[in-house]
Amino acid sequence: MKKLLLLLAVLAIAFLFFSPAALAQGEAVEVTTGDLLEDWEEYDGKEVILIGEVVGDVMARGDFAWITVNDGFYSREVLHETGALVGQNSGIGVWLPTEEAEKITRLGRYGSLGDLVEVRGVFYADDVQHGGDFDIQASSLTVLEPGRETDTSPDSWKYYVMVAGLIFLVLSTTPRLKRRAREMKSARALLGREEGED
Amino acid sequence: MLKPTRKDLMNILHNVGGVLMLLGLTMLIPLIISLAAGEWSSVLDFVICTSLTIGVGNLLYFGLPARGRVTWNQGLVIVAFSWFLAMLFSALPLYLSGHFASYLDACFDAMSGPTTTGLTLVHDLDHLAYGVNFWRHLTMFLGGQGIVILAITYFVAGSSTAAQMYMGEARDSIMPNVIESSRFILKVSVFYLAVGTLSLGLCLLQQGMAPMRSFFQSSCLFMAGFSTGGFTPQALSIVYYHSLLVELVTIIFMVLGASNFAVQYEIWQRRPREFYRNIETRVLSASLSVTLGLMLAGLIIVGVYSTFGVTVRRGAYQLISGHSTTGFMTVYPTQMGMRWGEIALFVLIIVMGLGGCACSTAGGIKALRVGIIFKSVNLKVKQALSPDSAVVKERIHHIKDFDVTEGLMGATLIITLLYIGFYLLGALVGLFYGYGLNASVFESVSAASNVGLTTGVTQYAMPWLLKAVYILEMWVGRLEILAVVVMFAYFINAIKRRQR
Hints:
Chain A is α+β, with helices and mostly antiparallel strands.
């Protein structure tokens, strides 16, 4: 019975926290880029929280900077390590003060899993300040988990295939060499015949 | 009906071998980039792929010596078959990178790249190795200029053989000699590549990107933009840069790529009048004006953007991207599919179908054919209104003046109808798989016109048959259909002959 009551209390709190009423009151709700793309009308102009990996570049422009936060599967699982293929990246541009961007220690790229960050800011489906961008104007950024180098060492079988490929390349030149030898032979024969005639 | 002999097939394979050798050599560029970036896994991948591609090319080129001159139909078969084999070999480094779920998916991107389409099935692009990412864009650049055209420049001996192959790649000759034409296209492209990479690199630097990243990304964006391809080094396409400057510079790349090389040659020769007089310039100006008006009206009716300035910026960019058949996006695919409304999407379908100029890197029906069709309609109306004894003529200016003849009308209409047929084929398959009418038509036209814009249909989870149909559409669309149809007919005839 106690457990049931506890569960009901948790559900009630969750409902209050995530309800449209909460949104209307201006409390930040945690969202994904998928939520923003599908229910943009619900979140447009509201404060949101997005958790994801910072990828690519920090593009500083004066006192502010652009970053890209990916919140899909790959923001936590590295393809080169897990081999799990679940599709394309999902992410969104975040405009934030430069001092907040400076907290970023690592960006997600090949061989690197970027910082897992939490950005808090206002989502715009049509950001007039930025020419109609679909973005978040963030006020704060928190690094939840620093990024790390990822394992990109080649699979051992690739070395064997590479050697086999190089051997094939050398062997494939045989017809070329044979052809050249044939041409040289006939040229020499022609030359010998001409010398004989002289 | 022509019955190809063993000698004919050997002649074809010999020339295809030359194309493969060139393709293998170009893989050395991403190999060097991978080496410089310390991406050892990619280094191994490119060594494997280079060896294999050059090796097979060697065997075909030197193992099967040329037997006589290449005929017109052999030229078409060489081109179509070269593109098919180029797809299979270009897909190898993509597949080995581990970012593609199947070899078919890698082939999809390997066809999308050279055909300058830009649809992609890559997984986790934002963590892709520099070398492999560069390779994706390089295939666009090679395909945009014409893989076979490049091969002609270096491997094909004899101008008659070169001429047959040149025409097969859907290009008009700019100069009397096709080898000179190929070299001109290559020189101009390399010049633009240098200037474009530098200018966009400086823009990206100014927009806050690190120097090395700026120039890497600018070279990729130039290759994709000028080739009217549409791949981008980051998953968010042009949205990633949040920059009006980048949008303007990429518009210049797209327009240059979609413009007729023959007209560009005239301008290089200081004959700018050709630009104003050319039928394609007139058709594209009219088409852009009308469709921009319709597009903006569509977006305003739906009320996607709050200001007129923003509507123009987003709408015009997508319109130019679609009309030039590039496929760069400044909006999310889902956003476009869900929020842009039916009118804007319909306008995009129309401009994607029309495409850019003939003898450019653009796809689609092409402005020249649209111009000929309009002039033909005009001619028929004039003839109907004239006395029976009157001789009515309609002239077109494209480099030189020529009459609209029955033969020209017929040839133009056949190709146009074939394009429409392929647009419908892809749309039908999409419909059978349960996609909506708009989405099915949009994606099919995007594939067959080598555009690359998407409303979200193209993704790794789509059915394998739809992937195969889009691959076919990209292939036939790039080669303007005829070469691929002739190739299939040629091989079927060869098999029939063998059976007898």
